[in-house]
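To: structure desk
From: M.T.
Subject: fold request, one chain
Message: Could you run this one when you get a chance? Sequence is below, nothing fancy, just the single chain.
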Amino acid sequence: MHKRDLSLGSQTLSIETGRLAKQADGAVIVRMGDTMVLVTACHSSSPREGIDFLPLTVDYREYTYASGRIPGGFFKREGKATEKETLTSRVIDRPIRPLFPAGWAYETQVIAFVLSADTDNDSDVLALTGASAALALSEMPFEKTIAGVRVGLVDGQYIVNPTFAQRKLSKLDLMVAGSKDGIVMWKPARWKSRKKRPCRRSKPPRPPSTRSAT
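Reply: Done. Structure tokens follow.
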């Protein structure tokens, strides 16, 4: 089992591998506070014939047991994916898809499960970082490792991975994914200011692959 702790803003980000999902090609547990996400990456043993697209599936799920609740009443099972789960799956897919080599025809799955959720830290950015780490640990030819953060703006100060309470006061809600060489994706959700949006002031570099993310 291997574990690495990183200081990120005012909090500690922990990435651990070798504890769960040992049969996956790559698996990590990403933790910040008491929020924990298990991310696995797997691919098929043989490529699909006759396709001209990347067969990548990303699935992010938040089950109620992560917050200590079990469904009761008439519906005792988890329902279909919520809007946030669907959008988070797309956010994870968007930056990692261009980093696969052209012609990769192996069925690839990246699955993120929220194991534990606290009242301070969101799990979506942890899942994004975990997806890249799981792919990097696998044998798949993933070109670059990336990481994701959320940036907030409270009282004129930028905050990395703000808590839920800080996000209510924040004028900015921006998700950024990138490597040490540059930004791969950003996704602004809110910008409350009369000034120009920061996304209009600079351009992110082109991803390493020429294939566009869909």
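Reply (cont.): The first strand starts at residue 2 and ends at 8. Let me know if you need anything else for the meeting.
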